[in-house]
Amino acid sequence: MRCLWFETMLGLALAQSTATSNLRLRRSIVVKDSFHRSYCSKVESATSFSGLSLSKISAGVDQPKNAPLIMETLGTTIITVTAGLLGKADMSPGLKALGVAAVLMPLIHAGARVSGANYNPSISVALLLLGKMPPAQCLFYISCQLVGALIGGVLTKVLLPQGAMDPSSVGTIATCVPEALFSFALILTALQTTVSKSQSRNSFFGSAISIVVFLGVAFGAGMNPAVAGGLFAGAGHQKGLLARTILPLIMTFPAAFFFRLTDIDETYAREMGLVPSVSAAFVRAYGPYLIELVGSFLLTTTIGLALVTKNLPIPLAAGLALTFLAFGSGYVSGAHLNPAVSLGVYLRNARRIRMQKLAGYASIQVLGALASGAMLRYVVGAGALEGRYSVPRAVISCGQAFAVEALFTCMMVSTILHINASTGYQGNQCNGLVVGLALMGGLLITDVVGGGC
């Protein structure tokens, strides 16, 4: 009896000990697992690409401390040599711009995780204004960019002894307007696609930035004070230097402030910087309208510059402009930039856009287009804008022109509605390109018969 009692108690003790050990083991596993998840999330957050700031990109990356400075110097040198050589090449402005953009895009992707791929003092200053980059780091970056541009200017001078830049037309109002507008567009697009938390982990940042550079260079804008300074130094010119260097730097202030006015995440940003912050209520209420206003202005201006300069086909310029605007600002307002698109969104889902918002969008889009037209009329004169869009053309009737316009407007609006409403397209990185191609194709076809409106 005692033996039986002893065996029973021994069994219970062993069972209790085993259960206690298992419980401790489970707790240990849970603690370790939670620690592992927390650690992984911190590492993933530290190493994720969420902006141009070096402190966010290179964290956790095994690389030399001076690698970002070397990357900025090398990248700016390559861009300067590219711009200098293509500047003297016997080819159309569109092909020259394509060459610059084709070199810039791989450089952006190559240097994004090393230095942030600024390659431009205006970008670094914009990050400084927003508090995304420390002053000392900004100073080092700009110094390296200037050194790289100077090296590039000297190399271009060696390769092209005749000089790399002809600044005879630089400084006139007709060249200052593209310089200022596309510098603003470049800085804003860079901030929207690389700094905004709403667009973190996107893969189109390089494409969007390169498209802006392509359009700007095609219309005579430099948008990079360092590159312009290096080329002017290599060519030995001074005329027009201030226009090429000061204007892009001046445009960093309105671009950074506009980004803070329209990006909801900036209202909660810890880094205040030198740009004043605004309330979240203001950004939610007025941010989309500001985006539609400025976007319509930039889109119309791009079409007008293509019309006046004839450096790019109008459908190509318009389609690419809509592409970078959709990539950059689509997360804020949807990048409608067209009353027909806003009406289509309203008819499909009245809960998504109310009648009041529809009226506001349409009004602000028309206002932006009118402001652009007035600006172009003042800069280039009314005569340069006349004669291109005679609608309808003499060979067709108004009814035929209306039918073509209606058909391809329906195609574009339907495309936008499907890629935005379908769950299968949510998060698709190509949506901006699809929208731009829809506009480009529609303009190409309607231009044949109806004037391309």
Automatic annotation (TrEMBL):
Q: Name the Pfam families on file.
A: MIP
Where is this protein chiefly located? membrane
What is this entry's stated membrane topology?
Multi-pass membrane protein
Q: Which GO terms describe its cellular component?
A: plasma membrane
PROSITE patterns according to UniProt: MIP (PS00221)
Q: Which domain of life is it from?
A: Eukaryota
Where does this one sit in the cell? Membrane
Q: Which residues form the signal peptide?
A: 1-15
Q: Looking at the keywords, is Transmembrane present?
A: yes
Q: Membrane-spanning residues where?
A: 138-160, 172-191, 203-221, 241-262, 289-308, 314-337, 358-380, 400-421, 433-452
Q: Name one GO molecular function term.
A: water channel activity
Keywords, comma-separated and alphabetical = Membrane, Signal, Transmembrane, Transmembrane helix, Transport
* Family in the record: Belongs to the MIP/aquaporin (TC 1.A.8) family.
Q: What is the protein name for this chain?
A: Major intrinsic protein
Question: Which source organism?
Answer: Nannochloropsis gaditana
